[in-house]
Amino acid sequence: MxxxxxxxxxxxxxxSVFVMPISAFNDLLGQHDKTTRKGFRLDLRHRxxxxxxxxxxxxxxxxxxxxxxxxxxKATTMTTTTTTSSSSAQAPLYSNWTNGEYETIIGLGxxxxxLKMIMDTGSDLTWTQSKACNPCFEQPSVPxxxxxxxxxxxxxxxxxxxxxxPSYSCNSNNSCKxxxxxxxxxxxxxxLGRDTLSVPNGxxxxxxxxxxxxxxxxxxxxxxxxxxxxxxxxIVSQLSVLRNFSNVFSYCLVPAGSLSMGxxxxxxxxxxxxxxxxxxxxxxQVNCDASTFTCVTITAVSVGNKELNAASSFRRTGGCIIDSxxxxxxxxxxxxxxxxxxxxxxxxPSLEPIPLTDTSSEGFSMCWKQKxxxxxxxxxxxxxxxxxxxxxxxxxxxxxxxxxxxxxxTVFANGFGNPFNIIGNLVSQKxxxxxxxxxxxxxxxxxxxxxxx
Length: 453
Fold this sequence. Notes:
This protein has helices spanning 6-14, 22-30, 55-76, 160-163, 235-242, 311-316, 333-347, 356-359, 393-396, 425-428; strands spanning 39-46, 78-81, 87-90, 102-108, 113-120, 127-129, 153-154, 168-170, 176-182, 185-199, 202-215, 224-227, 248-252, 262-267, 277-282, 294-296, 298-303, 306-309, 320-322, 329-331, 351-353, 367-370, 379-383, 387-391, 397-402, 405-410, 412-414, 421-423, 432-436, 441-446. A hairpin with a 2-residue loop joins strand 10 and strand 11. The strands form six sheets. The protein has a six-stranded mixed β-barrel with strand order 4-5-12-6-11-10. It has a four-stranded antiparallel beta sheet with strand order 18-17-23-24. A four-stranded antiparallel beta sheet has the order 21-22-26-25. It is α+β, with helices and mostly antiparallel strands. The termini are close together.
């Protein structure tokens, strides 16, 4: 993205009321070369950015959303046990509105309708509400009206885009209708269609997405979901076919309280110089559904100079995904216990452990009352090929007060009961992630300044 565009996008993002005039969006499009780049970039901000919330409130809101996301994962993923004592979780196609922490802007239709969307690496189908949706939530932007777009086309029931859905039916006009059940009840229903996608470097015709006609749930503060997984319905895979982009998705997340922008990149992306440590690891295609999720193989975990062989623990508990929409990092019980024991043994007598029941209601399960200053060691996640993602204590610790004393908590949680383990966004902030869905590799670079992504 050219430098002259950044102030406009920042202004649009940080305003308390989301307003994007069509003329402004069109001006934005006109400032870009539509043909020379094999990809495009979008600004990305945390959904609670600019709300004047303290760190505790920001985290509390994120953890409340996370509870729903974990329930969604459990309700929508199908787990099967293999003869090798490993398990494989199949990713859902659709994503509920709560499933994400970072938002961006796209345009749909002709004339375009600007929409504020949650970026979700854990699902594929992009969706927004129809103007005729009933019952539905009141969204911040003008709802998309398929009847007002000259380029909108319904997908028919015999289209492979329809027949590949996990659940669909046919309307009287042979259009493709999908429904998504969440927690045992019908929550979302819509029509599958194709229209023009508008982003800051150009327009792309024939983009597949869902238009919601029925939605039952809480009010979201966004206009829909941008599916950024690796499946054929995701924005990444679609544009690799429609425009011969590289089937690559990259992103860099800024902290929740930051007013600066991170970003996402669809298509070709080249790492800048001096970006920090760079590792590359193959996607795990055995223990979880790598067609959508960013699945990785963790072979070991280290705390300071102490290392635990963890390959079998991750394999038995559904593998591990990197997920932009989950806040905490969920680990197998044995790995979680190892980290807790190692940190506690190093921290005493400077810190006093807090009982689980005193902090679990807030979402934390590993906390200490601070008596004296103590420097926590680095923690490393070690991937296939001995590739180490070093997590500094500033990225895995959260500081608060409890009973009038300073409290230190980690962002690690016991993943017992989840369909898989999750590397959440708190430890992912300030890192660049490059998901190459053709080569089936994940590149992790950083820590770095994501506002320069």
